[in-house]
Design goal:
single chain, 513 residues, mainly alpha
Length: 513
């Protein structure tokens, strides 16, 4: 156990180190930051490493087997209505307590906190039920995605307040965070595994993709009837410590809050799991013990992780963005944002869960390294687009409409499994690092550049959730071409061998005569 935990922490350290060095170098060379801000950032980075290591271990031990078990049990039941009801309830429970969503809701001033949380929760719950229905009835994922995204853009056209659009797309990204992703991915595997047909592997992905659609649609529908108060967003506060004692106090004060948030998030899952276990008796005693220990690791990991990124990263991200956007070097934000995006995706806890799931389901055909590279390229493109959009004031729709159009067109040309992985990746990439560092960075840039906070600052998560849809499917296209080329080469080899054998027979017959 200790060896595995040590390995997880080393992996987390290697993921966090590049982004830490990049931000530190930029803060020293381009816009000098107060020493208190740097110290808070370094402390946050250290907590992030420890928290990510504990969380990934806990997810492997608890959330993944639990999700697979519930998914498999739902597939066994003959009652489709029961499966849909359980899917809906589970979606609402997990989403309402998702830490990423609470971070976003805290930064939105135009919609009451609980109104936004409940709206998003209902959206995820409904679409988790749709995802369960899709797997059981074997409905093509690409067809559903095309229908729902066309519906989303039609609804967006009629929204009276433009500030709802970037906020809605951001909501779709943050709901699929470190709490929901491990459960949803493994639930998809469990649901599809019992079918045992040749398409079950393809259909195991796509739950996260559909659950990302729900909040976008429900928040847009809210925008048809709800009149927002205020400007739609407010700048993150620059709470910077002046000495080591103040740094320690900031983090100590943050721990109880995030402990409460994570306990709330896990409480709903634990209660649901206990009821499920009492009814189904699926798990044995040793499995229950392992899952219990995994929940403890998950709890500790998320508390440490969220304390680190919220207390240490939000203030520096906002201050850094505001200072750089107000300086003569503001256009360097575009390449700098791309570099930060390339490395920061490796620090997202749920990304590690997705990459492992993809490698396991594809039996190594799609490696973690290939997934990491694809997601990093997608995130780099997203941050480049975000910085250009904020600095120029271009509407986010000029990026979202062609971006999603390309992503949906690609679904006709790539293997189905890559479509599911790609659309799942979009939700997974927009995790706590995005909501607690990249969104405050964008808000700071927006403030420093004198742009509209509600319209221009929000949309960062939307861009992060969109670009992997294209990049991963292009990876699938390349993979498909290589498979066809390899198959063609194999066929050519067979024909060449047959030709040689026939030639040999002909020569033998000629010499005999």
């Amino acid at each position: 156990m200790n060896k595995i935990l040590k390995q997880k922490i080393i992996e987390a350290f290697s993921a966090v180190l590049p982004i830490t060095l990049i931000v530190l170098l930029a803060a020293v060379i381009l816009v000098p930051m107060p020493s208190g801000a740097i110290l808070m950032f370094l402390t946050g980075a250290a907590l992030l490493v420890a928290g990510m290591g504990l969380f990934t271990m806990g997810a492997d031990m608890a959330l993944t087997p639990m999700g697979e078990g519930i998914g498999a049990q739902l597939a066994k039941k003959s009652s489709l209505a029961l499966a849909l009801i359980i899917g809906f309830i589970m979606g609402v429970i997990i989403t309402i307590a998702e830490p990423d969503l609470q971070v976003l809701a805290d930064q939105v001033s135009s919609i009451p906190f609980m109104t936004l949380i409940i709206t998003v929760g209902l959206g995820v719950g409904f679409f988790l039920a749709v995802a369960v229905l899709r797997i059981i009835l074997q409905i093509p994922l690409s067809a559903l995605l095309i229908i729902f995204y066309i519906g989303i853009f039609i609804v967006a056209y009629f929204i009276p307040s433009r500030s709802f659009i970037p906020m809605a797309f951001d909501s779709g990204g943050v709901t699929t965070g470190p709490m929901t992703v491990p459960f949803m991915l493994s639930m998809g595997v469990g649901l599809a595994a019992l079918r045992g047909d040749k398409h079950s592997q393809e259909d195991s992905f796509g739950i996260v993709a559909l659950c990302s659609v729900g909040p976008i649609l429900t928040v847009l529908l809210l925008g048809l009837f709800f009149k927002p108060a205020g400007g739609g967003g407010e700048a993150s506060p620059d709470i910077i410590a002046e000495n080591t004692q103040q740094v320690a106090l900031h983090f100590i004060r943050g721990i109880p809050r995030y402990f409460k948030d994570v306990c709330l998030a896990l409480a709903g899952i634990v209660i649901f799991f206990l009821v499920f276990q009492l009814v189904s008796r699926r798990f044995k005693k040793h499995q229950l013990l392992r899952i219990g220990v995994g929940f403890v690791y998950t709890l500790l990991g998320l508390v440490i992780f969220l304390t680190g990124v919220n207390v240490g990263f939000i203030p520096l991200g906002h201050l850094f963005g505001a200072e750089l956007a107000a300086s003569p070097f503001k256009w360097i934000l575009v390449p700098l944002g791309m570099i930060i995006g390339y490395y920061i995706v490796k620090a997202e806890p749920a990304v590690h869960v997705l990459n492992k799931q993809v490698e396991d389901v594809s039996r190594g055909a799609i490696s973690r390294k290939a997934m990491n590279t694809g997601l990093s390229i997608g995130m780099a493109a997203a941050l480049g687009i975000t910085m250009i959009r904020i600095l120029t004031g271009i509407s986010i729709m000029w990026f979202l409409i062609p971006g999603y159009a390309i992503a949906l067109i690609l679904t006709f040309f790539v293997p189905k499994i890559f479509t599911g992985i790609a659309f799942d990746s979009g939700g997974v990439c927009s995790g706590p690092m995005t909501s607690t560092f990249l969104l405050p960075l964008s808000m700071g840039v927006c403030q420093g550049a004198g742009k509209n906070m509600a319209i221009d600052a929000f949309g960062t998560v939307a861009a992060v959730a969109m670009t992997p849809l294209i990049v991963i499917q292009i990876l699938g296209l390349i993979y498909n071409l290589k498979i066809k080329a390899a198959a063609g080469a194999a066929v050519s080899g067979i024909w060449a061998k047959a030709d040689d054998e026939l030639t040999g027979i002909t020569e033998y017959e000629f010499t005999q005569h």
